[in-house]
Amino acid sequence: DRLRLGTVELHALNTPGHSPDSISVLLLDEAAQTRAVFTGDTLFVGDVGRPDLREDAATGGHARATLAAQLYQSTRQKLMALPGTTKVYPAHGPGSLCGKTTSPELDSTIAKELATNYALQPMSEAEFIAALLADQSFVPKYFGHDVQLNKRGAPNFEDSIRAVPRLNSVAVLVPEVLLLDTRPAARFRAGHLPGAINLLDGGKFETWLGSIVGPGEKFYLLADTQIQLDAVIRKAAKIGYEGNIKGALLAPASLPATSPSVDMAEVHAHPERFTIVDIRNRTEAQKPLFANTLLLPLPELRERVGEIPADKPVLVHCAGGYRSAAGASIIQNALPGVPVFDLGEAVAEFAAG
Fold it and tell me: Which stretches of 190-305 are assigned E, i.e. beta strand?
């Protein structure tokens, strides 16, 4: 397909691999010279799109090895054949779960990618598939939901935001519905509603929301201010979860539950006195920070929390302190009577050592 816009043309290229229907879009100037390619999730700066997100029957049942083979052909036959000066503009920068080694740079050139991108180096198709499938991160629960949502067409964003029920801070909440408290960890520890999960408002809020909470689950959102509440509602809507919000409310004056603060001196001197739960992803946890750690990645924690023994206090850590707030609150709800400590940002002391 071709589309003329003034003096330039956009050409669609079929580049399956990340998904069976992935495309890239070429930008040609008035002299019909290729100037840029918008690669979507096919080619990133320093990486290519992962091919393992469409295996579920609801998203087409496409085997990862089959899509990886298609990606090998898409890169070799289509993208790598473009002029070296062609600018590359991918759909994602760093932090996206659609790749595994994405560079912090937001654009590149074909020549630079040919020189530096591990996936574009000379190798056989079998070697490419093996390299691409190795050490991929977890698949968030919302990915399949969003594939279906994109296919049928998402509702108007602003209309969906306005439709989210706003509740009075003293409203009676349904006990069986998840309550996500998005306030800072210290405020949560000082006081929160019983049963709440402390999913902090932050740069990756929607990613972790869609990794912890399934697309069929309802939940409440709680924040300190109306501005903060509106922000997390919009972040939930970015992954198509605004329809899951049973209600959004500000923190009430009465927050009867508390969480203990960790004694760092005891952790340094006697880590063996704790059941230490590492909620990092498996690739991150290849170098444990403590001996005898129980690895339960955060996206699996709610389903596997029963594996945690209750004979000692529990110490929860991640890589930087963001995820452990959520992890500690999930475990605290599952193990009433067991002290559960969030190591938080203090994990840096052990990572450095």
Answer: 197-198, 219-223, 245-250, 275-278, 294-295
- H helix intervals, the chain: 64-74, 110-116, 125-133, 142-152, 157-162, 185-190, 205-212, 226-237, 264-269, 298-304, 322-334, 347-352
Closest C-alpha among 158, 138, 120 to residue 42: 120
Residues belonging to the chain:
353
Domain of residue 187 covers 155-250
Residue 97 pLDDT class (50, 70, 90 cuts)? confident
The one-letter amino acid code at 21 reads D
Beta carbons within 8 Å of 249's beta carbon, 6+ residues apart: 166, 167, 168, 169, 171, 220, 221, 222, 229
| C-beta of residue 213 within 8 angstroms of C-beta of residue 242 | no
- Report the candidate in 312, 313, 326, 236 with the shortest Cα–Cα distance to residue 280: 326
pLDDT band at 283 (very low <50, low <70, confident <90, very high): confident
Would you list the DSSP string of 76-101? Answer: IIIITTS-TT-EEEES--TT-TT-SS
Q: What's the whole-number average pLDDT of the chain?
A: 94
Question: What token pair was written down for 93?
Answer: 């920068």
6: in domain: yes
What sign has the CA pseudo-torsion 84, 85, 91, 96? positive
**Whether the Cβ atoms of residue 41 and residue 92 lie closer than 8 Å to each other:** yes
**How far, rounded to the nearest angstrom, does the alpha carbon of residue 52 sit from its chain's CA centroid?**
15
Number of Cα atoms under 13 Å in the Cβ half of residue 105: 15
Report pLDDT digits (tens) over 106-128.
Answer: 999 999 999 999 999 999 999 99
CATH for 297: 3.40.250.10
- Same-domain check for residues 49 and 120: yes
**Range in 96-100, 218-222, 223-227 with the lowest mean pLDDT:** 96-100
Kindly state the tokens that stand for 141: 């629960």
Q: Is the domain of 246 the same as that of 272?
A: no
**Rounded mean pLDDT, 92-109:** 83
pLDDT 10s digits, 20-47: 999 999 999 999 999 999 999 999 999 9
